[in-house]
Amino acid sequence: MLDRDRLALVRDGGVLINTARGALVDHAALTDELVSGRLSAVLDVTDPEPLPAGSPLYHLPNVFLTPHIAGSLGNELERLGRIVVEELERLVAGAPTAHEVRRADLARVA
């Protein structure tokens, strides 16, 4: 849907938000636009997914990557919600969290 020509039509400073499917956007063209700094992006999905470890998108200040969990079904959502509640209960009680997220890990996790 969004190839190089269509991305070029977006005004400078525009923000692309993709929460649908990564394949809807020409990944190479989008990467070029983001590396140039002309556009910014919020990406819940990518193509390929996950991005390769060496992708420049992990390090660009104009790119915000989020974990794609919209497709979660059934007890996955219940489990994720339960973990969040349990972590908050630990935090409020002054106990250490069970699933610590360390600053050093942020570069490699969604």
Write the layout of secondary structure elements.
Layout: H1 4-8, E1 15-18, H2 27-36, E2 40-43, E3 63-65, H3 75-93
Parallel strand pairs: 1-2, 2-3
Write a structural description:
The mean pLDDT is 89. The protein has two domains: 1-71, NAD(P)-binding Rossmann-like Domain (Rossmann fold, 3-Layer(aba) Sandwich); 72-110, no CATH class. Strands 1-2-3 form a three-stranded parallel β-sheet, with no helix packed on it. The protein is α/β, with parallel strands linked by helices and 110 residues long. It starts with a helix and ends in a 17-residue tail after the last helix. It has three helices and three strands. Helix 2 links the parallel strand 1 (15-18) and strand 2. It has helices spanning 4-8, 27-36, 75-93; strands spanning 15-18, 40-43, 63-65.
| Rounded mean pLDDT score | 89
Per CATH, which architecture of the largest domain?
3-Layer(aba) Sandwich
Order of SSEs, N→C?
HEHEEH
| Tally of alpha and pi helices | 3
Distance between the termini: 25 Å
Helix content: 25-40%
Number of strands: 3
Say which CATH homologous superfamily of the largest domain is assigned.
Answer: NAD(P)-binding Rossmann-like Domain
| Sheet of most strands | 3 strands, parallel
Total domain modules: 2
Strand content: 5-15%
Strand numbers in spatial order across the main sheet: 1-2-3
Structural class: alpha/beta
What is the CATH class designation of the largest domain? Alpha Beta
User: In CATH terms, what is the fold-level topology of the largest domain?
Assistant: Rossmann fold
